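User: Run a structure prediction on this.
Assistant: Running it now.
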Amino acid sequence: MSGTARRAESFFVANVKCVIWDLDNTIWEGICLEDPEVKIRPGIVEVLERIRDRGIVQSIASKNEPAALEFIEKFGLQDFFVYPQVNWDPKEDNIRRIAEILNIGLDSVAFVDDNPFERESVAAMAPGVRTYDAADYIKLPQLPEMQLQYDTPEARSRGRMYVDEALRKQEQEHQGERKEAFLMSLEMVATPRFAEKDDLARICELVTRTNQFNSTGIRYSDEEIEAFFNDNAYRFHVVSLVDKYGDYGRCGVALIKDGSQAWDLEILLLSCRVAGRGLGTSFLAYLTESAQKSGKRKFKARYIKTDRNRQIGLLYKILGFSKNRELSDQDSSVFEYDLEAGPIARPEWIKIEM
């Protein structure tokens, strides 16, 4: 396995995942249920389009009567917004509600409002949410936090993916505590394969963005990832996932170092969107089966515990990996799987297509 000089790092990704808008004097000029005439703000459609096309989901948090939503349809803007919250609740409560539905952190949310009191209230009561004055709406797409760090199909479709995930949550609530029945109902199909040159940007994106299901927490640079890719001693694998609700895209990465007797798993990470689906087990089953077919006797996996990736260490233990004390130290653990025992069993609710 590689040396342990590099330690796991906690880091913060600045990109906004959701922009939540106020309505009156923000999306349009005037108060829709009081003024005799309201007009949509100049250039707002172009702003909404540019934000949407970067994979950022958009919603509404407005203190208003539900009838205000009729103006969204009147102006033809309904397709831009998901899960609009139009009521008299505190806006910070509605913002939390939207973030919970989308399963994102408040530090990934931006809030746009013309009222300084509302912006200050949200900043105080929902720490982490970025607040913006509606007067600056034209500038929003130019801000660094609104840019695509990696221009991949997964990044541009991320807004749709959040909506798909909300539909899955509704299905899960319908199934109740029958988790296996819920997973079977998703009709998941995973496609693991060797990575190709076109996968590099997505691999870099996953390495940069993944926190929870990241086996080491090490933040390799794009240049380091490309160096691994071009080194014949290493081989990247990627896995894609689809289900009846939509396409997760390429959501998992593994970096394998090919040894004489073993495959060494240097990096294992999965997008948080597939957490709890069993894809980690399926991916490891594919990798151990591939190692066995290549004539290897052992499969080794490096693990550096961080404050957010404990579930990977637990997964190795559940799947029958044992800790190699000789190769482990206080900074890094090496888990080992005996391939003579056969590959890891795959979850029956995920179909594998090679």
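The two ends are 27 Å apart (CA to CA).
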